[in-house]
Amino acid sequence: METTAMNSQSTPAGGKPTHIRILVWDVPVRVFHWALAGSFITAFVTAESEAFRNVHVVSGYLMLALIVFRVVWGFVGTRHARFSDFVRGPGAVVNYVRSLINGNPEHHVGHNPAGALAIILLLLLGVGTVASGWMSFNEIGGDALGELHEGIATTMLAVVVVHVLGVIVSSFLHRENLLRSMLTGYKDGPREDGIGHRRGIIAIALVAVLGWFGWGLTQGQFPGLLDANAAAQQAHHGESGEHDDED
Amino acid sequence: MRIRILVLSTLLALSGAASALTPDDVKSALAAEVKATDPAFKDFSAQRGNVFFHARHGGEWSCATCHTELPAASGQHTVTKKPIRPLAPAANAERFTNQDKVDKWFKRNCNDVAKRACTAREKGDLLAYLMSVKP
Fold it and tell me: Which chain B residues have a beta carbon less than 8 Å from that of A51?
C-alpha cells in the first residue's frame, strides 16, 4: 500500500505529484462528444427553414442514437466514461464551483462535477428535444408540443453555452487545455489515473452504425421514421386528408 | 382520468391563450401597422395577394408550392410530402385565429419563399386574398 501511494504521489523537488501524459478519454467518448455537438448544431441551424426539414429530422434521430449509445457506454465504457466515475450529488457541484471562485480549483482527472452536471442535463434535454420533435413531426400534441420542442431545444442551447464557458474558465484556472484533451484523449495526471484502452474498434462500429442509420433515413429505408416517398403516395391516393401540419 | 382532464385542459389553456382572434382582427392589426407609416393607406388588395401567393420571390418556391394553387384545398409539404391542412379560413376555421402562430409562420415561410421578412402590406394582401377564397 505504502509503495503504491509513494509511486502515485511521489513528490520530487517541486513538491507536486509526478504527472505524466495519460489517456483519459477513450475514442468512443470523443467521437460521441463531437458527433453530438455536430448533430445539435445541425439541427439548430436547420430549424428555421422548411427546405432543410429532412436534414433537421435526421440530425435529431442521430442525436437520439448517440445518446442511447452514450448511456450504454456510461455503464460498460472505460473508467472515466462511466457514470459511476463522475455523477455526483449537488453538494459536489457547489463545492467544485466554489473552489473555482476561490481560485484554488479542485482537480479531477475525469469529468469535474460541473461538467458532469452538464453531461446529465444535456443527455436528458437531448432525449426531451428529440421526443417532443418526433411528436410534433407526427402531429401529436398540437401547437403546445411544438412550443415545448422549441422550449427544450432553447434550454439545451443555454446549457451548451454554459458548458462551453465552463470549459474555457476551467481550462484557464486549471492551466489545462480541456478542449484539446477532448480531441486527443490525453491529459497530464498520475499514471494510475490513465485508462489502458482506446476502444477504437467500438468507435469505428459506432460511426459505421450511425452512418448506415443516417444514410438509410435519407434514402427512405426506415419508413416509420422518415419516408418522403410513402407519404407522397399516400397523399396521391387521397388517404391522408385528416393529418395536420401547421405550415 | 383526472390526469387526462388535467392534461387536456392544460393543452387547451396553452393553445387557447391567444386564439380569441378572427382573421379580420389579424387583418386590422396589419392595416394599423401599414397606416402607421403610410397615412394614405386605404385597404388591402386580394388581387395583389393573389399575385403574390402564386408568384416566386427570389426563392425556389412560391406559397402555392406547398399550399397548392387553390388555398382552400389541402396542401403538401414539398420536402417531407406531409399533408398540410387548407390555408383559407373558409376551408379551415383555425387559420389566422392565433397571432403567435400567424407571426411564427409568416416569419418562417417568408424566409423560405422570399428570403426575407414580408412587409405588413404583403401579409395583409395575402390575408385579404386567402379570406376571399371560397371552398
Answer: 60, 79, 112
Best to test chain A binding among B12, B62, B66, B81 (most A CBs inside 10 Å): B81
Amino acid identity of residue A188, one-letter, is D
CA angle B24, B26, B29 (to 5 degrees): 110
Residue ranges in chain A whose pLDDT is less than 50: 1-14, 231-247
* Residue B109 near chain A (CB below 8 Å): yes
- The larger pLDDT score, comparing residue A91 to residue B17, is at A91
Is B5 at the interface with chain A, CB within 8 A?
Answer: no
Question: Distance between the two ends of chain A, CA-based, in angstroms?
Answer: 68
What's the gap between Cα B102 and its chain centre? Answer: 5
Enumerate domains of chain A plus CATH numbers. Answer: 20-236 (1.20.950.20)
Query: What is the number of domains present in chain B?
Result: 1
CB contact under 8 Å between B77 and A232, yes or no, is no
Which CATH number does the domain housing residue B44 bear?
A: 1.10.760.10
pTM above 0.90, yes or no: no
